């Protein structure tokens, strides 16, 4: 492998020469879920697609991205088998109706918490020694080195081996949209997971696509390394804004890439949810708070900043009510936002004597869009909250907790209606809202034009990209008389030479090959593969007179 992450001509020839009729061992390794339309490994790989996304914590914006990409693939490739790789396979399967597999050993539940089994032992230890800091420190140290580290390493190796077998079943791997290239949970979270899966895919000769992803923040050395190498290995890279493109360029990615709008902009909105003629009654402002954590490394300051945020947002809501507007509270993240909504309702009632209707939780994207369609203006703190409001043609007022929100509002020409979540004041926010109301007609015209342009760009992109992906095809039966089959002998020495050449071509990862060989006993399996293949050779019938 050359330094830029691409394979040399020699390694391509080695990889190409390894394509043969699959033996029994290969079929076992490449077993597909029962709902897939292909039953053998070679047929299943042809045209099947895996979509990787960090979804499963409750963020409906991320779920909308996954859902939109799947619909576009199915529209263009109706027979294509789609499998999701996510942080919460159970929720993904129920929500999207596809087979799903985990991308980590520590899956999420709704709300982004780890499963109870992952927390139980650590929680019991804390409960026993939380009153003694020194004892707690020693207990944590002992737990990390004696239990957690070995268990995590063993679980990760198991996941890598299972994932390698799984990914080899697909033609393509798509990392779909959202803020995928981020270090918000550390270098060994999003960055490592993406690098791991892309590396496994490329080792199985599976094409990789980064589709309209967002980037940032990226400041840790390991996070930069993982992201840079994952992008370098990919066959196609596109970002959802110029800021993300510039950021990955700064960390050293020099490959070819493009910029397209976020995938959710191509989502079709039901007619009943689109912007309609307004009733003559009271105007409604939809407010979507979020559990904003300004200082994740300082819990006390963290909580203080969140409480201040809720206090100022409640003061803004009270000003709206005082000026004859109705309030409607909603959230685009069903895992985290309900708690913030409850806190805001309490602050409105306690500090301003403003009672609001009981919050009716939403559980799906369509429910959320239906709820948002009933309001006249939207105040949101989330990136996809802005996009959902744009799809519905609702004038948007944004509080930005991350540069991506300000970038999006700037791209829409709505910079003056975006304020920083850390520094806004209730009175200033209300003044900005009054300006939004005054400019409503112009804002809607601008949003309509932008939406049409974004949709056109995405349709063109999806047509070009997914049209290049192969459709599933029937596997030819051995021994058919209407085709010419050339028998090929496989010998132990030939396979050993090719495997050695392949290991040399990707020398940095040769140790992984030896580890897998030891675990799975590949030497015995290769001998079985040779024996089965050569037996199959004698069963083939060659059409008389065919060119040899």
**CATH arch. level architecture of the largest domain:** 3-Layer(aba) Sandwich
Reading side by side through the largest sheet, how are the strands ordered? 3-2-1-4-5-6-7
What is the straight-line distance between the termini? Answer: 34 Å
Average pLDDT taken over every residue: 78
Low-pLDDT stretches are: 1-44, 115-121, 473-494, 501-523, 541-548
The total of helices stands at: 20
Give helix % range: 40-55%
> Main beta sheet, described?
7 strands, parallel
Global geometry: globular
Oligomeric state, counting identical vs distinct chains: single chain
- Domain count, please report it: 2
What is the CA-atom radius of gyration, in angstroms? 27 Å
Instruction: From the 3D structure, determine the CATH topology of the largest domain.
Output: Rossmann fold
Q: Count the beta strands.
A: 12
The CATH C-level class name of the largest domain: Alpha Beta
Task: Provide a quick synopsis of the model.
The protein has 548 residues and is α/β, with parallel strands linked by helices. It contains 20 helices and twelve strands.
Write the layout of secondary structure elements.
Blueprint: H1 9-17, H2 24-29, H3 41-45, E1 49-52, H4 60-76, E2 82-86, H5 89-96, E3 100-102, H6 116-129, H7 133-167, E4 172-176, H8 190-203, E5 207-213, H9 221-233, E6 236-239, H10 242-250, E7 258-259, E8 284-288, H11 299-322, E9 326-329, H12 337-352, H13 365-373, E10 377-380, H14 383-391, E11 396-400, H15 403-411, E12 418-420, H16 426-438, H17 440-467, H18 492-505, H19 510-520, H20 522-539
Parallel strand pairs: 1-2, 1-4, 2-3, 4-5, 5-6, 6-7, 8-9, 8-10, 10-11, 11-12
Helix pairs in contact: 1-18, 6-7, 7-8, 8-9, 11-12, 11-16
